[in-house]
């Protein structure tokens, strides 16, 4: 194809006719949102909604300024600034592939240890929303859901509020400046897969502020809003295949392309203290029933991801679509979803739990979405604790069967041994990997060693009925093999 032009504002007119490009003048955009955590998901989801709204001639004063608080974010910043913060989104539909270049993001603040540039940007009165995608485990919560004031990062920010290490400390520093200058609050918008993510963000910000400045904490609590939201779109990691796809199929030199499925959903509480874009004009839903939507999604999709990925890793199945093709894994997934998860989920407008399970089965089966079991299984300590354990507790409390969910926990324990059934090594894949691996190995002689990890299991560690079911499945996996255990449950 010859030399390709680097994606930039100057080369948009050179894009192939098949590639949709921004229909608005990006030079006239002004910032309104800071987004912390510029991973693939944000760029395929929230940034896309804003981009499409801008295409309609709306929200040109709500452009996104990107930010990060981790050292690796500097490399992402360099990639995006080199292409004027433009992104190629590639939709992977089973019936075909299409591409679109989005332009709602206009800048990326420097990544600094003291977060000085980020604080200054958030203190700008033009910024009315600070949004985050910092992963489920990034909110400094204890296993019981409370605020973890003893974490080293939190202790640092409490002692050094002007030079914070965390995104939350930077938000607090910016809000202090805004309060003192009389420029008012901003909305904190979590876009992570957490039940009640807005409430959790509020807890983290207010609790951290209270450690160094109780009066500011009270001001934040009284003036800032933290709407809950539910986000949904399957977005694989970008690697050599995605870079090759954007280059060879579409002729675009993009160093940070994003692939995604042909499905998006965003449900948000309409609780924005300083205004908001009209995202509902382009498909988002403002609702006071976010809890019901997110419960359906987190329990069926996110918990379902763990159910598939742990089994897939043990059996050397590399992708989620591959797991859905595997007869024993798919049967296990289908039964635990319909018999143990769906009864814990309420319907939402236009969707029953049963129909949502069917939708998820279709989405997970999309062979064009090369979503690896390794990516999905990452940070199981947060995801099992957040997605599966609440359902186990509810079913135990009501005397219902937990066999399938206990099997899912046994599969996670077996995966954390770090060796697949074919003898290959599972590389560390959790912030607590060493601790998890030690417990998994100890459970070979003492099955209870796994669920006695109170940090992850809390009160479940002492539940005799859960322990019996878990230990039975773990012993069966080890004595008969994973497929045999899956067939014994799933048929």
Give an account of the 3D structure.
It is built from 21 helices and eleven strands. By secondary structure, the chain is α/β, with parallel strands linked by helices. It has two domains: 280 residues, Rossmann fold (3-Layer(aba) Sandwich); 200 residues, N-(1-d-carboxylethyl)-l-norvaline Dehydrogenase, domain 2. It has a five-stranded parallel sheet with strand order 5-2-1-6-7, with helices on both faces. Strand 3 and strand 4 form a beta hairpin. Helix 12 packs across helix 21. The longest helix is centred in the middle third of the chain and has 25 residues. The radius of gyration is 23 Å and the shape is globular. The mean pLDDT is 95. This is Mannitol 2-dehydrogenase. It comes from Cribrihabitans marinus. Keywords: Oxidoreductase.
Summarize this structure as a short list of keywords or feature phrases.
21 helices, 491 residues, N-(1-d-carboxylethyl)-l-norvaline Dehydrogenase, domain 2, three-stranded mixed beta sheet, 2 domains, Rossmann fold, single chain, alpha/beta
Name of the CATH superfamily of the largest domain: NAD(P)-binding Rossmann-like Domain
- CATH fold group of the largest domain: Rossmann fold
Low-confidence stretches: none
Instruction: Calculate the terminal CA-CA distance, rounded to whole Å.
Output: 51 Å
Morphology: globular
- What is the percentage of strand-forming residues? 5-15%
Number of strands: 11
CATH architecture of the largest domain: 3-Layer(aba) Sandwich
User: How many individual domains?
Assistant: 2
Rg over alpha carbons:
23 Å
Strand arrangement, largest sheet?
Answer: 5-2-1-6-7
Mean pLDDT: 95
Number of helices: 21
Which structural class fits the helix and strand makeup?
alpha/beta
Name of the CATH first level of the largest domain: Alpha Beta
As a percent range, the share of helical residues equals: 40-55%
Biggest sheet descriptor: 5 strands, parallel
């Amino acid at each position: 194809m010859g030399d390709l032009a680097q994606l930039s504002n100057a080369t948009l007119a050179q894009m192939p006719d098949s590639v949709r490009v921004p229909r608005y003048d990006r030079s006239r955009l002004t910032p309104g949102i800071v987004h912390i955590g510029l991973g693939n998901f944000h760029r395929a989801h929230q940034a896309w909604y804003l981009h499409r709204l801008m295409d309609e001639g709306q929200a040109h004063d709500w452009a996104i300024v990107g930010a990060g608080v981790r050292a690796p974010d500097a490399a992402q910043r360099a990639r995006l600034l080199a292409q004027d913060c433009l992104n190629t989104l590639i939709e992977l539909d089973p019936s075909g592939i299409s591409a679109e270049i989005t332009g709602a993001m206009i800048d990326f603040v420097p990544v600094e240890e003291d977060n000085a540039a980020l604080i200054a940007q958030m203190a700008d009165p033009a910024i009315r929303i600070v949004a985050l995608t910092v992963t489920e485990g990034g909110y400094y919560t204890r296993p019981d859901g409370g605020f973890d004031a003893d974490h080293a990062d939190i202790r640092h920010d409490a002692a050094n509020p002007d030079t914070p290490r965390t995104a939350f400390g930077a938000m607090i520093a910016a809000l202090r400046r805004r309060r003192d200058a009389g420029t008012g609050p901003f909305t904190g918008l979590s876009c992570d897969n957490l039940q009640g993510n807005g409430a959790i963000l509020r807890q983290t910000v207010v609790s951290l502020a209270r450690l160094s400045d109780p009066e500011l904490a009270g001001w934040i609590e009284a003036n800032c809003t933290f709407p809950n939201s539910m986000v949904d779109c399957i977005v694989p990691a970008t690697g050599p295949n995605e870079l090759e796809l954007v280059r060879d199929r579409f002729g675009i030199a993009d160093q940070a392309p994003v692939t995604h499925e042909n499905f998006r959903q965003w449900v948000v509480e309409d609780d924005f203290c300083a205004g908001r874009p009209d995202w509902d004009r382009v498909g988002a839903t403002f609702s006071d029933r976010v809890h019901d939507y997110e419960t359906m999604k987190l329990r069926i999709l996110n918990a379902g991801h763990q159910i598939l990925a742990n089994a897939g890793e043990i059996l050397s199945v590399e992708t989620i679509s591959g797991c859905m093709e595997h007869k024993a894994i798919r049967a296990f997934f289908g039964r635990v979803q319909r018999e143990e998860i769906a009864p814990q989920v309420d319907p939402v407008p236009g969707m029953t739990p049963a129909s949502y399970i069917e939708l998820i089965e279709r989405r997970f089966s999309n062979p064009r979405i090369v979503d690896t079991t390794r990516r999905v299984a990452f940070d199981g300590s947060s995801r099992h604790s957040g997605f599966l354990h609440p359902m186990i507790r509810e079913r135990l409390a009501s005397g219902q069967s937990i066999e399938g969910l206990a099997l899912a926990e046994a599969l996670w324990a077996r995966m954390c041994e770090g060796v697949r059934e074919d003898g290959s090594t599972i590389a560390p894949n959790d912030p607590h990997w060493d601790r998890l691996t030690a417990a998994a190995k100890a459970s070979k002689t003492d099955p209870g060693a796994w669920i006695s990890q109170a940090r992850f299991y809390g009160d479940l560690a002492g539940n005799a009925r859960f322990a019996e079911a878990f230990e039975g499945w773990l012993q069966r996996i080890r004595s008969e093999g994973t497929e045999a255990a899956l067939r014994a449950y799933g048929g």
